[in-house]
Design a protein that fits this description.
The protein has seven helices and four strands, in the order H-H-E-H-H-E-H-H-E-H-E. By secondary structure, it is of the alpha+beta class. A four-stranded antiparallel beta sheet has the order 1-2-4-3. Helix 2 crosses helix 6 and helix 5 crosses helix 6.
Length: 208
């Protein structure tokens, strides 16, 4: 528990990175092997990640993200996507339970039908909101795991989502939720941590 508290307290949004620091693909794989345990509604696993390390592609992302320099100096820029059609995978993701006997055929069919109906009845706006919600849960887990492995991150929303979709050939069913830069922070000139509200200002019990 103490280690988790330290990670939470030490993780900060990096404002600039030490240039030319590379991250091994094996280490990225280790991070994502843990990211997959993030929670998601109905275990639909809405998040998809695009890891950008190619210099030319990073330059193009930089140009569509208000020319934020940290995109160029980060070891990788991660584009976090949310799948608006994740619910269509409910049958596939529950087949294992069916084959193992955890779910009966009746329970399996009922799960597939109810989850599919749940999303279809609520329509495209809800499906988009769900994609963003669940991808954001996954993204926070990514940043905490990265910090645990000694890497710094910064979530970013200042970009043109349509242009980013074009640059990375992202299918329309995916919503670009955020970018996350990943690298080793250059802490020279680092500011103190920003103001945090007291708990009493953002927590209520049994009503607002």
């Amino acid at each position: 528990m103490g280690e988790l508290v330290n990670i939470i307290q030490e993780r900060r949004s990096a404002s600039k990175y030490i240039p030319d620091v590379t991250i091994d693909p094996k280490e990225l794989e280790e991070i994502f092997q843990l990211v997959k345990f993030a929670p998601s509604a109905f275990n639909l696993q809405h998040a998809h990640y695009i890891v950008v390390q190619d210099a030319d592609t990073k330059q193009r992302l930089h140009d569509e993200a208000s020319k934020q320099y940290k995109i160029l100096t980060a070891s990788a820029t991660i584009v976090v996507l949310g799948d608006t059609e994740a619910y269509t995978k409910v049958a596939e993701y529950n087949e294992g339970f069916l084959n193992l006997g955890v779910l009966s055929k009746q329970e399996y069919d009922s799960t597939v039908e109810s989850v599919t109906q749940f999303y279809r009845e609520r329509g495209p706006v809800f499906q988009r909101e769900e994609a963003i919600r669940n991808a954001s849960l996954s993204a926070m887990q990514f940043m905490l795991i990265a910090k645990d492995k000694g890497w710094d991150t910064c979530p970013m929303i200042g970009f043109d989502p349509e242009k980013v979709q074009e640059v990375l050939n992202i299918p329309q069913k995916f919503v670009p939720v955020m970018m996350i830069t990943l690298g080793k922070e250059d802490v020279s000139g680092q500011r103190p941590r920003g103001y945090r509200k007291p708990v009493g200002q953002f927590v209520s019990y049994n009503g607002f």
